[in-house]
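ok trying again, last paste got cut off:
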Amino acid sequence: MSNNSTEQNASAGNSQSPGSVEVPRFTGKDLPPVGRLFIQFAPPIAIIALIATVLINPDGVAAVIFDMRSFVTGGFTWMFILYSLFAVAVCAWLVFSKVGGRVRLGGPDAKSEHSNFAWYSMLFACGQGIGLIFWSVAEPIMLRDESPVIQATAGNVAEGGLVWAYFHWGFTAWAMYCVVAVCLAYSHHNLGKTLTFREATVDILPKWAQGGAGVVVELLAIMATILGLATSFGFAALQFSSGITSFTGIASSPAVWLIVILGLAVLTAVSAFFGISKGMRVISETNSILSVVLVIAVFVFGPTLFIISNVTQTFGSFFTNFVAMSFWTDAPSTAEPLTSWQDSWNGWWTVFIWCWVIAFSPFVAGFIARISRGRTIREFVIGVTVVPSLIVMVWIGVLGSAAIFYDDQTGRGISTAVGENVSSGLFVMLESIPIVGSLLLVVSTVLVATYYVTSLDAGTYALSDFVSSPKKSGAWFRVVLVASIAAVASLLLTVGGSAVVDTVQTGTIIGAFPFSIVIMLMIANMIRRLLKRDRSTRQLERAVNDPNPNVKLHVDDNGEVQSTPDMANPDGLASR
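nice, full thing came through this time. structure:
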């Protein structure tokens, strides 16, 4: 893009009323027409081709994906473990370094756009809400008899499953989301770049490689977002159907799945249309209230004394074993080539979950970055890692402990139910709660719906940024994206069933392998930007976020963005 066109875009944000400009002002580079067409049309064509291939030859595709998953698990478990440690280390650096306290997202005068309660509600809902509904009971039950690293206390062998659930859904997972989100947030709010992986990453590369690399990076982000949301939509429909079955007796069927998908799509479309403040914020805050009701009700009406004792003990076990779990690669399993990922404990759990987090990073981190303007980087990192992690641990501790208690009381009845249908674990446990169990079945089923609506809503916002930036997407464009993702989910479920959805989901997770390299480049670029942050950068951050139309941004001969008083625009009329 030429300097002149960059200057024109940088001089103001989207068209505003006289006397103001939209901040942050755009200082990035738009894609050339060919690149933009490629980004807009290549993903849907590729996804249609992929889905057609899966539906035509499901067994053949499943076999290929199985082999690829075995290859990734057998040869690169160490890489995913090191990546997770790297994410934790970068977050720690951002919290304890001077730069974390000095840099405010959106410049020194930026104000938070959302209250703390609304902010926590939205980031928690888009990050892990639906996953916790699914796994808060299933993982502690499935791992109660097989928990490497954890030295279980005598008489409480089942504590290992809870401790690993804390680990997989707690601090490390949130650090992996956070480190991606802070890269996008600083690039967008402070430097005026589009809220895309492309502009947060490519300027660390040689100039000759930036154009092509930017297109590839954006394609990977778009593909991961669409496929991740579509397969999650399918599993959300299955789990919601299980919830309906638990208190109505209506059997799960393709017709029920379609009705569920249509209903969730309509709710999400309405939320996406009305925007973050009027749509997603309200649903997210409702999620938080219902979640508190669910956890408190299970605590009060369930085995209260056992829950208190077990949570206390397993919290201590988690902190004691955190470092060992973080570094555990199951080294003896690499003595011989791995023939199947199913032969590896990490293939079932840690590597699988870390890949899932990486695959979901595009839309989760993109949305978190969007809603976090006005907070310092230190506040941002603590808010995105520590607070949600404590919420996760309390959630899993209460629900998982109750599940273990009732599993023992029923002769492993919950274990049997989870073995037959993983999505049924929470509902089977809630049926055992006296007095309020039936009511909690309804509450948890509603939570499945509302948590997924917020996840899909967040994904829609991120996807619209990836596709349309630097132009601002309209409400109807987000509605079209919701309808498209719902159509993909419907096709996968009704034509291929849950097995095909599982195949596409696993393929999406395998895509985390190349995408992790993109993320590491982006993190390195953010560290480079922060370490090189000097007086001119601070001036740029102020100018990018200055709503005064008399301040004009332009690009000098070295490609640096400068700010000067706009003498040609003394009346403060911003134009694009």
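cool. The chain has one domain: 45-533. Residues 1-18, 567-576 have pLDDT under 50 and may be disordered.
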